[in-house]
Known about the structure:
Number of domains: 2
Structural class: alpha+beta
Number of strands: 11
Strand order of the largest sheet: 1-2-3
Strand content: 25-35%
CATH topology of the largest domain: Homing Intron 3 (I-Ppo) Encoded Endonuclease, Chain A
Helix content: 10-25%
Largest sheet: 3 strands, antiparallel
Distance between the termini: 36 Å
Amino acid sequence: MTQAELQELLFYDPKVGEWIWLRGRRRGRLAGFIRRADGYRIIGNVMGKNRKSSRLAWLYMTGYWPDYDIDHINGDKADDRWRNLRAATVTQNIANSRIRKDNKSGLKGVHLRGGRWWAQIQCDGKKRHLGCFDTAEAASVAYLAEARVLFGGYARER
C-alpha cells in the first residue's frame, strides 16, 4: 500500500489521531477499534488486512512504512495523535513501556529480595544487576539513571 492509496481510502486527522472512511458503505464514519488484547487502535480491512492505526499514520504523514516499531510517547497505545508517535526500535519501545501488572514494588526495574531492594535492567536481551539498596526509592534512582544512559528519551519511570 502506498501513501496515495491510503489517502484515497481514509482521512487521518493528526491533531486528534482519528481516522474517517472516505469510500464505500462506511464513508464518513470513524474508522478503527481498540483491540482489547493489547490496547492498540486497529483499522480493519485496509487493503485486506487489519492494521495498527499508528503504523498507518506513519505512512500517511511520511510517505513510507516505518522500518521499526511506532512508539506512543505518552504510553497510551490508542493515542495516535501525530505528536505522540515516534519511530523506535523494539528495545526503545520496551523501554517506554509501563510497569508490568505483576510488579509488586510499583517501580520499574525494582524488586524485593532477602529484605533488600534490588535494581536490574534489561537491554538487548541481557539482564544487568545494578545493585541492592536499603530502600525501593534508592533502587529506583539507580534503575532510572541507567535507563537514561541506555535508552535516552525513551526511558520511562513508571
